[in-house]
Every structure is written in structure tokens, then in C-alpha cells.
Specification:
Blueprint (H helix, E strand, L loop, with lengths): L1 H14 L4 E6 L1 H18 L5 E7 L3 H8 L6 E10 L10 E5 L9 E9 L3 H11 L5 E9 L12 E5 L5 E2 L15 E5 L6
Parallel strand pairs: 2-3, 2-5, 5-6, 6-7
Antiparallel strand pairs: 1-9, 3-4, 8-9
Helix pairs in contact: 2-3
The structure holds inosinic acid and magnesium ion (MG).
Length: 194
């Protein structure tokens, strides 16, 4: 018995303990918040055509739900960006991987992002989009990790302010995984914080 237990635990040590996800924000809370956000956005821009610009890929689920909570005319477009790598991340070097399909000149644009962390990605995006002369440029984020902010940017619409923990689910990934979880949770890796 003891032998068996030892064998099992050594196998486990080899594999390492599993990653785990602790619930932070439930799907119901997310949906409730998005409902409020959608009606606020419409109140701020009554009767206007709104162009939602989703930041791929994390914001896809949020954009899909938010769009359905904004009455009236709403269209979407998508943009994809990535940081140049972990080392240069704090330098604010961001690369545009996929541009928008259409011009935003004269349009009411709302950038839809999953999470605002250092703010470097958003700062870059806003600079690029502002140059294209939209009528107005706003930002909606589901999550805001305020403690981590480096760049001087803020979102106009914020779902939840969260502590400095690595979260996954509802579009947010860890190495492309967990995006499909309906809730947002804190990811715990076996080796402690990454
Ligand atoms: P920022 O440029 O540091 O604000 O980074 C924003 C991007 O980093 C987000 O769009 C996410 O893709 C990613 N990110 C930041 N924090 C998290 C997290 O806790 N979980 C998953 N992705 C994150
Ligand atoms: Mg993102």
C-alpha cells in the first residue's frame, strides 16, 4: 500500500501537479455587467451608428455578447496586435498583425478589449486609430488590472476591476487554452506564479 502510494506520488511529481483555475467572476455576473454596459453605451450615443473594434483574439467573446446588448445600428471590425516579446514588452513595442478591413474616418468607434493590464497595447492602438480621424474613439474593457498600469490610458467602460492575478476564461488565454470557459478564473500554475 505504502509502496503503491509512493509510486503514485512519484509519477505525479514527474508530471507535476495539475494547473487549476479558481472562479473569480461567474458567467452570470459577466452577462449582467455586459447588459448594463450595453445600455450605457447606447445612452451615451443615442441614434448613432457604432463601430465596435474587437482586439483579437481575447475580445471575441466579450464583443459578441456586448454587441447583442447595444440596441440600434452596430457593426464590427477586428484588429490583431502582439507585443514584440516579453523582454521588450515594457518598451511598448507593439506589432500590428491584422489591420481593420475598413476606414474608421468620421465614425463612432468603440475599441473592445478583454483586459487592460500595463496599458501598452491599448496606448499603441489608440495612437494608430486616432490618426485615422474617427468622429469619436472610446474604449470598453471587460477587466481592468489597474495596479499594473504603466501607460497613461484609461477605458471609458470597465466591466470589473480585478487584482493583479493571471486570469483565464471568457476569451482570455494561457498559451491559447481556456478561452472557451464561460467564467473568468485565476490560473494557478504548478511552479507558482509564472
Ligand atoms: P497590456 O498591453 O499589458 O495592457 O496587455 C494587454 C494584453 O495582455 C491583453 O489584451 C491580454 O491579451 C494580455 N493579458 C494581460 N493580462 C492577462 C491575464 O491576466 N490573462 C490573460 N491575458 C492577459
Ligand atoms: Mg488581448
Amino acid at each position: 500500500m505504502a509502496k503503491k502510494k509512493a509510486a503514485a506520488s512519484s509519477a505525479k511529481a514527474k508530471e507535476g501537479p495539475a494547473e487549476s483555475v479558481r472562479l473569480l467572476i461567474s458567467s452570470a455576473d459577466i452577462q449582467g455587467k455586459i447588459r448594463e454596459m450595453g445600455s450605457r453605451i447606447r445612452k451615451d450615443f443615442p441614434g448613432e451608428h457604432l463601430l465596435l473594434v474587437g482586439v483579437l483574439k481575447g475580445a471575441v467573446l466579450f464583443l459578441a455578447d456586448l454587441a447583442r446588448q447595444i440596441p440600434g445600428e452596430v457593426t464590427f471590425d477586428f484588429i490583431a496586435v502582439s507585443s514584440y516579446g516579453k523582454e521588450t514588452r515594457s518598451s511598448g513595442q507593439v506589432k500590428l498583425n491584422k489591420d481593420l478591413d475598413s476606414s474608421i474616418e468620421g465614425k463612432v468607434v468603440i475599441v473592445v478589449e478583454d483586459i487592460l493590464d500595463t496599458g501598452l497595447t491599448l496606448q499603441y492602438l489608440l495612437r494608430v486609430l486616432q490618426q485615422r480621424k474617427p468622429k469619436s474613439l472610446k474604449v470598453a474593457v471587460l477587466l481592468d488590472k489597474r495596479e499594473r498600469r504603466i501607460a497613461d490610458v484609461r477605458a471609458d467602460y470597465v466591466g470589473f476591476v480585478i487584482p493583479d492575478e493571471f486570469v483565464v476564461g471568457y476569451g482570455l488565454d494561457y498559451a491559447e487554452r481556456y478561452r472557451n470557459l464561460p467564467d473568468v478564473g485565476v490560473l494557478t500554475l504548478p511552479g507558482g506564479p509564472h
